[in-house]
Amino acid sequence: MTGEFTQLLAGWRGGDRAARDRLVGMAYPELHAIARRQLAGERRDHTLQPTALVNEAYLRLSGLERIDWQDRIHFVRLAARIMREILVDHARRRSAHKRDGGERMSLTALDQIAGDAADAGIDLVSLDEVLGRLEAFDADKARIVELRYFGGLTIEETAEAVGLSPATVKRHWQVARAWLFDALADQG
């Protein structure tokens, strides 16, 4: 499957829309799992469901032309980032309609991020802001958070994607989680 996936990415890069559509169809189960993970921490009455999130991400992905796709992990990382952006945009629109400016995250949610749980119930707008701050001074750690938390990649897959050893990724992941915990606590 990896070889076919890479061939389809090359076809998409060359402008082949049929390759793009086949690739997204092949990746759909993984994209749906990412969407479920990202929505797991949202409120129960969230208007977006995993299928709708995947569909919206597909629309955004399919509108991208001439991307220099590298591999499956690059594709998954971009899809996860797009899903995160969709959820953050959705949360910002929802917060704009509230007088108090949105929901605050609980200490339980912060503890869960520090404990490596993907369903922490975090305010995505706050998380997006602190992740941007992390990226400004340590892009590697921000990328690891993005791949692990939003993309759902394992330590080994993340290590392969960023070109580091699994032990180094694990250390960076622990430091980044602790930093996020502190940064989110400061915002609350």
TrEMBL record:
Entry similarity comment: Belongs to the sigma-70 factor family. ECF subfamily.
Protein source organism: Luteimonas kalidii
Domain RNA polymerase sigma-70 ECF-like HTH: 4-185
Keywords: Sigma factor, Transcription, Transcription regulation
InterPro entries assigned to the protein according to its UniProt record, in alphabetical order: HTH_Sigma70_ECF-like, RNA_pol_sigma-70-like, RNA_pol_sigma-70_dom, RNA_pol_sigma70_ECF-like, RNA_pol_sigma_r2, RNA_pol_sigma_r3/r4-like, WH-like_DNA-bd_sf
Protein name: Sigma-70 family RNA polymerase sigma factor
